[in-house]
Amino acid sequence: MSEESQVQIGITDEQQPKRPIRLGFALVIGPACWLGPYVGVSATLLPAKIGQLAPADKVGLVAAASAIAMTVATIANIIAGAFSDVTQTKHGKRTPWIVINSILSAICMVGLSMAKSVTVLLVIWGVYQAVLNAVVAPMIAQISDRVAPKWRGTISSFYGMGMAFGNYGSGIIASQFIGPSAISTGMQILATFAFVGGLLSAYLAKEPSNLDQPKAKFDAATIKQNFMFPTKGAKDYYLALIGKLMMVTGQYVIVGYQLYIFTDYMKLSKGATSSSIATMSAILMVTGIIFTALAGPIADHMHRLKAPVALTTILLGVGAFFPFLSDKPWTMFAYAVIAGIGMGAYNAVDQALNVAVLPNPETAAKDLGIINMANTLGQVFGPLIAAVVISSMGYRAMFPVETAICVVCGLLIMMIKKVK
């Protein structure tokens, strides 16, 4: 059966004897071009713009932006995923959501670049979170829809490489636009990536029509199945969800305040900060891409998902301890090496693990949207926790906090039963 004609709710190993490489490339470009603009803005350009508009309140306002993101993303991820599961068009059920909301997310980023007050900035930031998460949930559901179990580690590696490009490449780009007169330009450049990348990913994925599938009836049973949190056979699912939430939370304890770590904790000048962020991002990107490419196929060969996810999460915590030892830039570069290895390997197999613990493949986008909600919430909780720690104990204390969070996360992942 060809990749274009496969059934949307999941296929078997026998139905897909060859790797779906075209879909794999779509899942490199897709996450690179939604995550890259998001991280570039949230981790660097948004704090820089907040610092420009309200320098005296910047730490608290970054935390407020995170709280807004948490509230909106929590709702949007679940609702968009659920509606995507029951969408029927000649372009399939995922493509319309990816295309329309990629365009809207680019428009929102242009709006952020033009905001003249903190209030307007935060309102647009909230709208952006809604449309962004309506891209994320349908996009990742394609792994469940169209990838046979034997290839999920490999295709998850493709997705992980896209996340590495987005997560770390964005820092290289954003670091060039920290200056007050350049922040808006940086946001507009990242908006272009979101627009072009979303459309290109959808084109390469070439999702087939699903008009021949039975239409979902909107009765009480359908609403319960498609719009509620899963309740049956979902213990491993929730362990994976909580584990992911803690891992991303731990990561963003540092990422959410990396600009201020260099300027306020390490006391670097603006030029040195820009150079250090670019160097750190380059290290994270290179190590992340290499280990993402290696880990997925190895996991497929070994038929193991749980242990790699747990161990790489703990490795991220080990890297986070280095800046605690010294307030010199080399410790952040050491963190970048170790975290890049850990995050690369994690991203390679994490999505395959998430698909493996799904309670029901027919509600894949909704259930993966809930797990992705953990990704979004972690990006919110991390800066919130960091803000509390920084305010009460100073910058140095935030690093062992990340280490502890990541270790607990690894232990939770190892408690999953039905996945090796």
Automatic annotation (TrEMBL):
UniProt organism field: Lentilactobacillus kisonensis F0435
Chief location bin: membrane
A cellular-component GO term for this protein: plasma membrane
Entries under Pfam families matching the protein: MFS_1
Domain of life from the UniProt record: Bacteria
Claim: Lipid biosynthesis is one of the keywords in the record: no
Residue ranges constituting the Major facilitator superfamily (MFS) profile domain according to the UniProt record: 236-420
Transmembrane segments: 21-39, 59-83, 95-112, 118-137, 158-179, 185-205, 237-260, 272-295, 307-326, 332-349, 370-391, 397-416
Alphabetized UniProt keyword annotations: Membrane, Transmembrane, Transmembrane helix, Transport
Compartment(s) where it occurs, according to its Swiss-Prot or TrEMBL record: Cell membrane
Taxonomic placement: Bacteria, Bacillati, Bacillota, Bacilli, Lactobacillales
Stated name of the protein: Transporter, major facilitator family protein
Its membrane topology: Multi-pass membrane protein
Xref: InterPro entries: MFS, MFS_dom, MFS_trans_sf
Gene Ontology molecular functions: transmembrane transporter activity
